[in-house]
C-alpha cells in the first residue's frame, strides 16, 4: 500500500502542470556501497537438474563497491510546498561477497552482485543557511538538509547464481550546498533493502550455483526482501 501511494504521488507530481510550477533539479550521483550482512547457499545440481548437495554459510566476507546514478527532483515552488519534493532516479551498484573460510565440498567462488534500481521517493527539506527554517528571497541560495523515503523496482544479478526482478525500498538523508548560481553539491547517506536472489528451478541447472540473501533486520519488508546496502553518495545537481 505504501509503495502504491508513493507511485501515485510521483505520477501526479511529475505531471506537466506540476513540473511547470516546480523547481527542477537534475543530479549525477557517485559513491560507494557498504553491504549489510549476508548469507550464502551453495547448491550442486545433478545432470537432471535435481538438487544433489547444499552448503550454507553466514560467515561471509564482503567488499565495498561502486555506485553511479542519475536523478530528477521536483521541489514545490509555492508556500509550504517548497519544503517537499518528488524524486525519480535510477542507480547501479556492485559488490563482491565470498565465504570467509572454505566450506567444502563447495568451490571457492567470489560472488559478484550487480543491481539496478528504479526508485521514486518523497523528500522533505529544512533550510539551514542563510536563514534557518526559512527560504531566502534568492532562489537556489539556501543550504538545506533533507530526508526521504522511497520504493520501486530493483533488478539483481548474481554471478554463479541467478537474476531476478523485485522490490527495492530506501531511506535517505543528506545536505545540499550551493556552489554557483545553478550548481549544487550534495552529500548523502542511504539505507536500501532489496530482494534475495535464489537459483530458479527447472532451468536445466547443472553444477554449483549460489543463492544470496540478507540476514534479519528490523527494517526488512519480509523474509525475502532483506538484503541491505548502505550507500554513501556525492552528487552534483543542476537547477533549472
Helix and strand sequence = HHEEEEEEEEEEEE
- Read across the widest sheet, the strand sequence of neighbours is 1-5-6-7-8-9-10-12
**Which residue ranges are poorly predicted, with pLDDT under 50 across at least 5 consecutive positions?**
5-20
Class, according to the CATH hierarchy?
A: Mainly Beta
- Distance N terminus to C terminus? 33 Å
Quaternary arrangement of the chains shown? Answer: single chain
Q: What would the principal axes of the Cα set say about the shape?
A: elongated
User: Which range best describes the helical content: under 10%, 10-25%, 25-40%, 40-55%, 55-70% or over 70%?
Assistant: under 10%
Number of domains: 1
Q: How many helices in DSSP terms?
A: 2
Q: Mean pLDDT, rounded to whole units?
A: 89
Strand count, sense and barrel status of the largest sheet are: 8 strands, antiparallel, barrel
Structural class: mainly beta
Q: What proportion of the residues form beta strands (DSSP E)?
A: over 45%
CATH topology: Porin
- Give the CATH architecture: Beta Barrel
Number of strands: 12
**How much is the radius of gyration in Å?**
21 Å
Descriptive report:
This protein is mainly β. It has one domain (2-15, 41-239): Porin. The chain contains 2 helices and 12 strands. The strands form 2 sheets. It has an 8-stranded antiparallel β-barrel. Strands 3-2-11 form a 3-stranded antiparallel β-sheet, with no helix packed on it. The two termini are 33 Å apart.
Amino acid at each position: 500500500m505504501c509503495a502504491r501511494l508513493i507511485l501515485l504521488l510521483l505520477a501526479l507530481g511529475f505531471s506537466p502542470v506540476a513540473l511547470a510550477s516546480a523547481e527542477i533539479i537534475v543530479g549525477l550521483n557517485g559513491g560507494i556501497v557498504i553491504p549489510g550482512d549476508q548469507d550464502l547457499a551453495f547448491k550442486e545440481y545433478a545432470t537432471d537438474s535435481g538438487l544433489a548437495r547444499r552448503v550454507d554459510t553466514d560467515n561471509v566476507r564482503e567488499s565495498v563497491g561502486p555506485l553511479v546514478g542519475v536523478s530528477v527532483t521536483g521541489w514545490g515552488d509555492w508556500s509550504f510546498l517548497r519544503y517537499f519534493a518528488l524524486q525519480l532516479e535510477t542507480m547501479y551498484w556492485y559488490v563482491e561477497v565470498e565465504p570467509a573460510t572454505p566450506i567444502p565440498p563447495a568451490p571457492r567462488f567470489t560472488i559478484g552482485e550487480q543491481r539496478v534500481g528504479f526508485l521514486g521517493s518523497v523528500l522533505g527539506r529544512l533550510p539551514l543557511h542563510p536563514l534557518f527554517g526559512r527560504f531566502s528571497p534568492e532562489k537556489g541560495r539556501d543550504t538545506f538538509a533533507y530526508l526521504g523515503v522511497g520504493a520501486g523496482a530493483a533488478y539483481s544479478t548474481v554471478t554463479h547464481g541467478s537474476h531476478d526482478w523485485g522490490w527495492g525500498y530506501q531511506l535517505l538523508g543528506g545536505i545540499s550546498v550551493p556552489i554557483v548560481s545553478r550548481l549544487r553539491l550534495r552529500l548523502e547517506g542511504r539505507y536500501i533493502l532489496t530482494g534475495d536472489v535464489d537459483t530458479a528451478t527447472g532451468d536445466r541447472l547443472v553444477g554449483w550455483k549460489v543463492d544470496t540473501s540478507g540476514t534479519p533486520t528490523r527494517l526488512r519488508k519480509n523474509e525475502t526482501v532483506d538484503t541491505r546496502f548502505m550507500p554513501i553518495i556525492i552528487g552534483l545537481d543542476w537547477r533549472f
